[in-house]
Amino acid sequence: MNDKLLSFLGICLRAKKLVIGADICVQSAQQGKSCLILYAEDFSANSLKKVAAAAQQHRVGIMNTHRTKEELSLALGRLCGVLSVEDEGFAKKLIAMLETEQGGDLYDKIQG
């Protein structure tokens, strides 16, 4: 795998610091476990509204991975459109990776 972000997400999953699925991400935010929510660029708009509302309510950053559901799913070994990072260090690293990928200051564009 050549994509560093997808490889790093795999590490997060193996460390059990990543949960996958809209309902589980909402629960993670509500329980105060979520540090960052990431979603696929082709994630359902209706599902995204629910996840984004929970993220905003519980002050959790939410970002687009700029990867498709298929790319995320292949990298993580299961169907994935949205995921919650439950470790602050991993979350900071993922934010930095996405900022670098987009040329900086992407953090200002985080919804939530």
Give a description of the structure:
Helices cover 50% and strands 13% of the residues. It is built from 5 helices and 4 strands, in the order αβαβαβαβα. It has helices spanning 4-14, 22-30, 45-57, 69-76, 88-102; strands spanning 18-20, 36-39, 61-64, 82-85. β2 (36-39), α3 and β3 form a beta-alpha-beta unit. The longest helix is centred in the C-terminal third of the chain and has 15 residues, at 88-102. The radius of gyration is 12 Å and the shape is globular.
Q: Pairing-aware structural class of the strands and helices?
A: alpha+beta
Spatial strand arrangement across the major sheet = 1-4-2-3
Based on CA inertia axes, which overall geometry fits?
A: globular
Query: What oligomeric assembly is this protein in?
Result: single chain
Structure annotation, total helices: 5
Terminal residue distance: 31 Å
Which percent band covers the strand fraction? 5-15%
Q: Give me the strand/helix succession.
A: HEHEHEHEH
Helix percentage range = 40-55%
Number of strands: 4
Radius of gyration: 12 Å
- Write down the overall mean pLDDT: 90
Low-confidence stretches: none
Largest sheet: 4 strands, mixed
Task: Record keyword descriptors for this entry.
single chain; 112 residues
What's this model, at a glance?
The protein is α+β, with helices and mostly antiparallel strands. Helix content is 50%, strand content 13%. The mean pLDDT is 90.
Fold topology:
Layout: H1 4-14, E1 18-20, H2 22-30, E2 36-39, H3 45-57, E3 61-64, H4 69-76, E4 82-85, H5 88-102
Parallel strand pairs: 2-3
Antiparallel strand pairs: 1-4, 2-4
Helix pairs in contact: 1-4, 1-5, 2-3
